[in-house]
Specification:
Blueprint: H1 6-18, H2 25-37, E1 44-45, H3 46-53, H4 60-72, E2 76-81, E3 84-89, H5 91-105, E4 116-121, H6 128-140, E5 144-147, E6 150-153, H7 159-168, E7 174-179, H8 190-197, H9 200-223, H10 232-250, H11 266-285
Antiparallel strand pairs: 1-3, 2-3, 4-6, 4-7, 5-6
Helix pairs in contact: 1-9, 1-10, 2-4, 2-10, 6-7, 9-10, 9-11, 10-11
């Protein structure tokens, strides 16, 4: 019979993670800061970070390279204490982490009033570089591209959009409106527009792959027959990998209301699975 123990499932997941390219290491470290370091004082010595990631097969060289990259892009800042370098999230990175914390740990179905939030960022007075940055950042905020320089979302708050436009110096050249589908029986229906503006099919596949990867681990945890195998290191490794891989999907998820999602949306099942495993390993991992 195949071995379905927690320890075996943990080893399989680590092997899969080790097959990822080194370019994924900064994303993994960002997860560690968001999920673990922030909850334990907000700072960590580089040597401790290296030891923390060693069970996941991440070398000291990869850790140093990734931390340097995260520092260069404004995600981490260093604090020198004697000969040791400690790192923490920058204020802007902490805001991004807080946004995903809400979605990971305090999941709730977004309510929808039927209106869409539309952002018009025309070309007049806005440079090509600014338009490119608007497109990149609006996508990150979850907005879909309705038309050239027009972005839309059914429930996203507009305050971060205004903050973005202020930062880019173009707030006076942008208009935000609310609108709704005039007649669902004529023209492109709302559901079809969602699939046209958001890559729902890709998200569905990513959530399905996440479920396939972690469902066996959940079954091993629920079985409970090998609870002695659940040492703190194994639980910590699972916690890091679970949030790392779930967070990577959330980066592409616009968080649409249920009414606009396909029936039996895989994202809801993936969140329930993530929460089940996280709760099972959290105490031992701490």
């Amino acid at each position: 019979m195949p071995n379905h123990s927690f320890k075996t499932r943990c080893s399989t997941l680590i092997r899969d993670l080790n097959n990822e390219p080194p370019s994924k290491t900064p994303s993994l470290i960002a997860t560690v800061f968001g999920d673990i370091v922030e909850a334990h004082g907000g700072e960590i010595w580089l040597g401790s970070l290296t030891r923390l990631l060693a069970p996941l097969g991440v070398s000291e060289r990869l850790v140093r390279t990734a931390v340097y990259r995260l520092s260069q892009d404004g995600s981490l800042e260093s604090i020198k204490t004697g000969r040791r370098s400690y790192y923490r999230l920058t204020a802007s990175a902490r805001l991004r982490v807080d946004r995903f914390d809400r979605r990971i740990y305090y999941f709730g179905e977004p309510e929808w009033d039927g209106d869409w939030r539309l952002v018009f960022a025309g070309t007049k007075g806005i440079s090509a570089a600014q338009r490119a940055e608007v497109r990149r950042r609006m996508t990150w905020l979850g907005f879909g591209i309705i038309a050239p320089n027009v972005y839309g979302h059914p429930t996203a708050p507009v305050a971060p959009v205004w903050q973005l436009m202020e930062t880019l110096g173009i707030a006076g050249k942008v208009t935000i409106m609310r609108a709704r589908n005039d007649d669902q029986t004529v023209g492109l229906g709302t559901g079809d527009m969602v699939r046209q503006c958001f890559d729902i099919d890709r998200l569905e596949k990513e959530y399905a792959a996440f479920i396939r990867r972690y469902q066996p681990l959940a079954q091993a945890l629920q079985d409970g027959s090998d609870s002695n195998d659940r040492n703190p290191e194994h639980c910590l490794v699972i916690r890091i990998m679970l949030i790392h891989q779930y967070r990577r999907i959330l980066l592409h998820d616009p968080e649409l209301p249920t009414a606009l999602l396909p029936p039996d949306w895989k994202g809801s099942a993936a969140h329930r699975l993530c929460a089940l495993i996280y709760k099972a390993v959290e105490q031992a991992a701490n």
